[in-house]
Inverse folding.
């Protein structure tokens, strides 16, 4: 008997993205540029995070028409974002045949208490996390993949670095504990004991973990790979830069050859203007996207 | 020594699978990494990405030279099977090695929600193999000199030949080592014999 939409099929699909770059795109033309550059998937959006940040207003799931156009334009997998807790948007994306759903803090949250029950879907989900407890709560809800939140739309990698380092510190701390100390650790992390025990035993998250939020250069991508991330999402960093084709291609190479400085030097050369970027300290607390999610 | 093409995809899972049965492996990212390697595994991942990256830094050309010289065996899983295929329906220009006389159709079962797992009967295996299919291709033509070891709904999913092997499912995502050992023997990686 065949079985569809199982945990193994969902998390196994995320495994196939490893060592790859997933790029935000807003048009079929951008999707084609991403595919040509070697992206492993594209994220179909109405506006990239930098524009959402600049323009304000409520940010929602993209128009299904736009998502279908992007799905028709490329052969690589297509992801799309829904608002936190907005399971009706997720039902729509599943019906469209989107390959992966990002329940994303970049969009305006629809529910300030609950995330989507992701076990109820056949399509896999990716969620953002700032720390281990948050990652394990999302996995308990059925997420098949985790990414750092970073601070989307800033072109500033500092928050993604903070989240990646913090998550690994917490994992190493868990590994150092005695078995009988895990229930107290689970309480502190606000995460299910069963998952806390899994991380204690294996020294990693039970699902694939990518970097996201502020990655703008090949060096940023390589840095995140060195920090133990298994691939990267690039949002505004590519199509808000001077030469998207060249930059997209360079970031893909930087992820594959992250520990080969010669290749990194070669691909980093003459990429044109990067996106301008924002210093995180200048963003008021209430406008920081990483704070969204519970 | 088994090489694992490590430009993108789940190469680490293949590495772990071989580590569990004591077969040494090496990650292959550049042409020179193929030296001393008798079998090359091409993992699951995104076939367009793997194809582009393997062409750069000479891995594709060196793999072709070594295969033609008779000193390298090749096994592609899912995206890797596409990389080996002579013909990719609808994408004739997709970068790939293309030395195996098979035709494939990409994403033939549909999008991700149609991905599935199932038990397969495999020729020569004494019990079924649990197989995971993820946005899998279908092998639509199998050329002379190749043998089909397993089918799903009539379509070949496990094909072998001399120094060639293709599976459209992912043995690296389960803990059953039989398909990995099969390839180690096919490649003549002697280390495998003692555990087989």
């Amino acid at each position: 008997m065949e079985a569809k939409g199982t945990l193994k099929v969902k998390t196994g699909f995320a495994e196939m993205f490893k060592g790859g770059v997933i790029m935000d795109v807003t048009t079929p033309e951008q999707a084609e540029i991403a595919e040509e550059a070697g992206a492993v998937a594209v994220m179909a959006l109405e506006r990239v995070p930098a524009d959402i940040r600049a323009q304000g207003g409520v940010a929602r799931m993209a128009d299904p028409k736009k998502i279908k156009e992007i799905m028709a334009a490329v052969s690589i997998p297509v992801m799309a974002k829904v608002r936190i807790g907005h399971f009706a948007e997720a039902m729509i994306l599943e019906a469209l045949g989107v390959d992966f759903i990002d329940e994303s803090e970049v969009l305006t949250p629809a529910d300030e208490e609950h995330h989507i029950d992701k076990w109820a879907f056949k399509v896999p989900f990716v969620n953002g996390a700032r720390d281990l407890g948050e990652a394990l709560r999302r996995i308990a809800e059925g997420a098949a993949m985790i990414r750092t939140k970073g601070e989307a739309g800033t072109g500033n990698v500092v928050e993604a670095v903070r989240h990646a380092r913090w998550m690994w510190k917490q994992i190493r701390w868990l590994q150092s504990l005695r078995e009988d100390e895990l229930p107290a650790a689970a309480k502190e992390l606000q995460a299910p004991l069963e998952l806390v025990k899994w991380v204690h035993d294996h020294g990693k998250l039970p699902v694939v973990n990518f970097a996201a939020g502020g990655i703008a250069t090949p060096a940023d991508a390589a840095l995140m790979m060195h920090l133990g991330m298994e691939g990267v999402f690039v949002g505004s960093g590519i199509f808000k830069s001077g030469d998207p084709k060249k930059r997209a291609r360079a970031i893909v190479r930087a992820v594959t050859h992250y520990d080969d400085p010669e290749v990194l030097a070669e691909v980093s050369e003459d990429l044109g203007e990067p996106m301008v970027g924002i210093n995180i300290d200048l963003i008021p607390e209430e406008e920081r996207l990483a704070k969204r999610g519970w | 020594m088994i090489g694992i093409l490590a430009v993108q995809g789940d190469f680490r899972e293949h590495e772990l699978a071989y580590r569990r049965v004591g077969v040494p492996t090496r990650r292959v990212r550049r042409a020179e990494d193929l030296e001393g390697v008798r079998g090359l595994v091409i993992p699951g991942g995104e076939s367009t990405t793997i194809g582009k990256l393997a062409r750069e830094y000479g891995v594709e050309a060196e793999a072709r030279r070594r295969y033609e010289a008779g000193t390298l065996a090749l096994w592609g899983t899912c995206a890797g099977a596409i990389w080996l295929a002579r013909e990719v329906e609808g994408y004739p220009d997709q970068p790939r090695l293309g030395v195996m006389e098979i035709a494939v159709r990409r994403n033939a079962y549909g999008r991700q929600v149609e991905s599935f797992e199932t038990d397969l009967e495999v020729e020569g295996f004494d019990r079924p193999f649990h197989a995971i299919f993820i946005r899998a291709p279908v092998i639509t033509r199998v050329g002379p000199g190749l043998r089909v070891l397993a089918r799903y709904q009539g379509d070949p999913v496990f094909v072998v030949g001399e120094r060639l092997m293709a599976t459209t499912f992912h043995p690296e995502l389960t803990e059953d080592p039989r398909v990995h050992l099969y390839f180690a023997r096919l490649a003549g990686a002697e280390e495998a014999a003692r555990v087989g």
The first helix of chain A runs from residue 7 to 15.
